[in-house]
Amino acid sequence: MNEPNFSKSALTTRKLTVAYKNGQPIILNLDLAIPLGKITVLVGPNGCGKSTLLKSLARLLKPVVGTVYLDSVSIFKLPTKEVAKRLAILPQGPTSPEGLTVEELVAQGRYPHQGWLQQWSQEDEKVVQQALATTGLLELAERSLDSLSGGQRQRAWIAMALAQDTEILLLDEPTTFLDLAHQVELLDLLYELNQARGRTIVMVLHDLNLACRYADRLIALRDGKAIAQGSPQEVMTKGM
After folding, report:
1. Contact assessment for residue 135 and residue 156, using Cβ atoms and an 8 Å cutoff
2. Which fold does the domain 1-86+167-239 belong to in CATH?
3. pLDDT tens digits along 99-153
4. Is 45 a residue whose pLDDT tops 70?
């Protein structure tokens, strides 16, 4: 297995173990490095720990042993707002209040940047409009989320994550429920964001062909362990 490079990483884990409430481990003793400014894709069979790992990287699940480091500092020791300014996560199948418009959803991405003395600003509005433009949603800004197609809704959630304006973006199966054409469209968008803005992107994908097409680095999981890490060619050559 290609060993992780901890020196040039946006996120790292050391001896990370995450368990169910009954003590059954989901992630076991995991050493991991997410390369800075690259696209990393987590792959593996159902139940292997991909979504759990993503939630742990976002500080949504606390480990039993080990930790997640953001720039060499344990992410669990950082203030919540600081983490939210640097890292955004889009979970699988996100839900929103009924009747919310696309623009209202995207504006929620600016909440980490608000405060008692810092209310909605021209900069916030600019970032929201940029996120809508980047995802091709300007003409749909006033539309209700409920009225959109699956592909359009996914783009709206991506736009909200972009409006959060973080250096790291985590996505749990962003292509779920999309046909192949919309899957490619969405992944092309994420690839362009990575190339144009240097965003570090970590996502869970089921389709190995798409994973190999878009990933700079693949991490193959099985039974809560990383069985291979490296370029798609390196990982697939190992007979994953």
Report:
1. yes
2. Rossmann fold (3.40.50)
3. 899 999 999 999 887 766 667 888 999 999 999 998 899 999 999 999 998 888 8
4. yes
Question: How far, in Å, CA of 177 to CA of 94, rounded?
Answer: 12
Closest CA to 168 of 204, 194, 135: 194
pLDDT in tens, 155-187: 899 999 999 989 999 999 988 878 888 889 889
Angle at 161 between CA 210 and CA 124, to 5 degrees: 150
Q: Which residue has the tokens 């959060």?
A: 164
Residue ranges covered by each domain of the chain = 1-86+167-239, 93-165
State residue 216 phi and psi, 5-degree precision.
-80, -35
Q: Which among 181, 134, 180 is positioned nearest to 155, based on CA atoms?
A: 134
Predicted local distance difference test score (pLDDT) of residue 115: 67
From residue 77, give the alpha-carbon distance in Å to each of 10, 62, 74, 124: 16, 11, 6, 27
Angle, vertex CA 108, rays to CA 121 and CA 181, nearest 5: 120
